[in-house]
Amino acid sequence: MTDVTKSRPLSPHLQIYKPIPTMVMSIMHRITGAALYFGTLLVAWWLIAAASGPAYYEWVSWFFGTIIGQIVLFGYTWALVHHLLGGLRHFMWDLGHGYDKHFSTKLAIANAVGSVVLTLLIWIVGYAIR
To answer: Phi/psi of residue 106, each to 5°?
Structure first.
């Protein structure tokens, strides 16, 4: 190691930072974006089953009706809603609004709470009209 590299400051890592709502929502936005790739495969699977015929469609519908399938669909719904709200938050920032630290923190918390509330509302309405 040379003298130049010894004197350079080390870059801080996640273990040094205290998690704050905006940081957590940023990480969750990335995670939900990646999860939506998996969820899109599920939607494609369902559409392919619908196009393949009644027997295969019935089997896929049975899978989505199991407890595992319902948990996966609930998680996909939450990821979709959470990512949508995070995207709207980023769109607002792109327009130059919401940079104030306290407002940004409140918006991050609202994103987390709103995604859970909207997901529950979607599922309640879905079961009510079913």
So the answer is: -65, -40
The domains found in the chain, sorted by start residue, are 21-129 (1.20.1300.10)
8-state DSSP, 19: P
* Segment holding 121, helix H or strand E: helix 101-129
Q: Are 60 and 97 in contact (CB under 8 A)?
A: no
What does pTM read for this prediction? 0.82
Contact assessment for residue 117 and residue 78, using Cβ atoms and an 8 Å cutoff: no
Other CB atoms within a 10 A radius of the CB of residue 101 amount to: 9
pLDDT tens-digit map of 45-54: 999 999 999 9
DSSP string of 38-54, one letter each residue: HHHHHHHHHHHHHHH-H
> Token pair 């196009």 is at which residue?
51
Write the Ramachandran bin of 8: left for phi over 0, alpha for psi from -120 to 50, otherwise beta. Answer: beta
Both tokens of 64, joined, read 């989505």
Query: Hey, what amino acid is at 108?
Result: A
Would you say the C-alpha torsion 62, 80, 49, 130 has a positive or negative sign? positive
